[in-house]
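Progress report, Aim 2. The chain analyzed during this reporting quarter is listed below.
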Amino acid sequence: MPINQLEWNRHQELAAFLRNRRARLSPELVGLPRGTRRRTPGLRRGEVAALAGVSLEWYTRLEQGRDIHVSAHVLELLASVLQLDVDERTHLFLLAHSSPPPIETFSPAQISPTFHQVLHQFGTTPACIIDARITIVAWNRAFCVVFGDFATLSERERNTIWRIFTHPLLRQGNQEWEELARSCLAQFRANYGRFANDPWWTRQIAELSRISPEFRELWTQHDVRSVSEGQKSMHHPLVGELAFDFFSLQTVDHDLRLLTYMPRSRSRTAEKIERLLDTQ
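Predicted structure tokens for the chain:
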């Protein structure tokens, strides 16, 4: 059956991408001798095929943009042979399968200096960055004066799910604790589906199930959703009631979220946070 124009274009783009990445690799980079009769830059098709464990005929058809099926396993082999980085690997899967590569394990996030600068530009607006495990990995001063000094906490203590279900003080003065717990846990479960092969999730779920009856009950409900905005009210021990409108923004790689708590207008929350910052 002939393929449509869009499919043909995608196959041609995949072929060009493979040829380009093959040409940029020298034989020495993959442990092969250069020899004296090499006429083209980079690796030969036969060398890539041999390193990936596929036939030269099959790989030639792939580089010609032919309509052939490529398994995820073979794509992973090609990504390894061609020494593709994370973005290039994703691009390879999108061209071959029209979908991103499967996620098997969690990789700790790298927070760039620019991200830190963005956080500190928010002033009296508490802001933080959360990874796919719902762990807070970066924050600004306003976030610390409102929610506590996260620099003194361990990675487990900075995990939002762990804090919600094991920290009794979080319930005191928090009028929306149950809704917060439900929404965060639903996001946690959604991310768990992406990293089901990562043993960290199994350990975390088992430990929380053991020590928190509330977690056990909510976990059995299998809620899956993402909450990008809402409202939050809380009682601060030094300045009293604080009221926020919160929203989160997803980064391009989908593994980090920027979460901000905007002081609600006419609530004097911004003024109270400014007083807290002045005492630091």
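The first helix runs from residue 5 to 23. DSSP finds twelve helices and five strands in the chain. These observations will guide the mutagenesis work planned for the next reporting period.
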